Amino acid sequence: MLGAIRTTRSGTPIDIILHTPGGLVLAASQIASALAEHDGPVSAIIPHYAMSGGTLIALGADAINVDPHAALGPVDPQLGEYPAASIIVAAEQAKEPEDRTLILADVGRKAIWQVEHFVQELLVLHMQPAQAREVARILATGTWTHDHPLQPRELKALGLSVEVDVPGACTT
């Protein structure tokens, strides 16, 4: 995918259709960065859902087109089967946390910081820095469960450039 984005001529629009439960932050951030750096309009089209890593990719686009019932999701990092934010809370609330919990909490803090700042870098391309910082914090820090569906109304309330329109979708 990175090669396809890089070899798309300057000024040529890119439409990327996303239907994904997510994936690795590394892969999603590489794709999102490539889309954000493309010299031409980029639209992310979400007919159903683009959660987690899919949301990261969508945030690299200039416009996000969604079905009225489509959803994006939070981008809070997961460490194995656990949310990084929850590991941090567990470490802070435990009277005598195990070394493993303390180590995971440290990694969790780093992971949240990394994702939050990456999201902020993407968002500042389309909104004011203070708003980008706040939206990145909301999306990356465990505000909701990782599988919480953020539908068009919530996405617009966050200030994201979302249009409820999936080009070429059947309307009957």
Keywords:
172 residues; alpha/beta; 2-enoyl-CoA Hydratase, Chain A, domain 1; 4-stranded parallel beta sheet; two-stranded parallel sheet; 7 helices; 14% strand
Structure description:
By secondary structure, this protein is of the alpha/beta class. The protein has a single domain (2-164), classed as 2-enoyl-CoA Hydratase, Chain A, domain 1, CATH 3.90.226.10. It has 7 helices and 8 strands. Helix 2 runs parallel beside helix 3 and helix 4 packs across helix 5. It is elongated, with a radius of gyration of 17 Å. It starts with a helix and ends in an 8-residue tail after the last strand.
The tally of domains stands at 1
Strand content: 5-15%
By CATH, the topology is 2-enoyl-CoA Hydratase, Chain A, domain 1
The radius of gyration computed from the alpha-carbon positions, rounded to a whole number of angstroms, is 17 Å
Uncertain residue segments: none
Count of runs of 4 or more consecutive helical residues:
7
Topology at a glance:
Blueprint: H1 2-6, E1 14-17, H2 25-37, E2 42-46, E3 49-50, H3 53-59, E4 63-66, E5 71-72, E6 78-79, E7 82-83, H4 84-93, H5 99-123, H6 129-140, H7 152-157, E8 162-164
Parallel strand pairs: 1-2, 2-4, 3-5, 4-8
Antiparallel strand pairs: 6-7
Helix pairs in contact: 2-3, 4-5, 5-6
What does this entry show, briefly?
The protein has 172 residues and is α/β, with parallel strands linked by helices.
